[in-house]
Fold this protein.
Amino acid sequence: MSEFKNVEIRPMTIDDYDEIFAMWQITTKRALSEADSRENIDFYLKRNPGMSQVAVVDGKIVGTVLCGHDGRRGFIHHMAVAENYRRHNIAKKMAKTALDALSNEGISKTHIFCYTNNNLGQSFWTALGWQKRDDVFVFSYTYKKE
Ligand SMILES: CC(C)(COP(=O)(O)OP(=O)(O)OC[C@H]1O[C@@H](n2cnc3c(N)ncnc32)[C@H](O)[C@@H]1OP(=O)(O)O)[C@@H](O)C(=O)NCCC(=O)NCCS
């Protein structure tokens, strides 16, 4: 598939929040939670400077990826491209930029969470050479103050 000539991949800033949150309502709605509030995204970007990316075409944000690490492993969330811009390698470029940023910090292995019925997401990550794990479950815990 041809590529958009004028696609720019650049670091996400909190000033992008309204535009990316509007995009996520369409592309990523079921993965959204209170963790995606403006305040929490601001906190995330400050903890992981320069790692999360947006893709911009003609001044409009058409792609996002959140990227960070815990000092040991990298994590990617909300990899998304607006529907009309898909299959032009935009997500692939954002993934490369994010992984380069992790590598610059000494992080060589990165994980993503993908819903088991998200065939699109699975096709994408598999095409990029990511390995689907059958040997782990995700366990989650929500802290409640007593
Ligand atoms: C998954 C997503 C981010 C891919 O974005 P994209 O910019 O279209 O992906 P790319 O063009 O970079 O695709 C790279 C490769 O991934 C594979 N791929 C991407 N979309 C695919 C699809 N619909 N079916 C099969 N393979 C696909 C292809 O091998 C593709 O290379 P090719 O186009 O040369 O064949 C986009 O479809 C999206 O936003 N989906 C909704 C959100 C989502 O599910 N995100 C993943 C969460 S785990």
User: Anything to note?
Assistant: The chain has one domain: 7-127. The pocket of coenzyme A is lined by residues 1, 27-28, 79-81, 86-92, 112, 114, 118, 120-121, 123-124, 127 (CB under 6 Å).
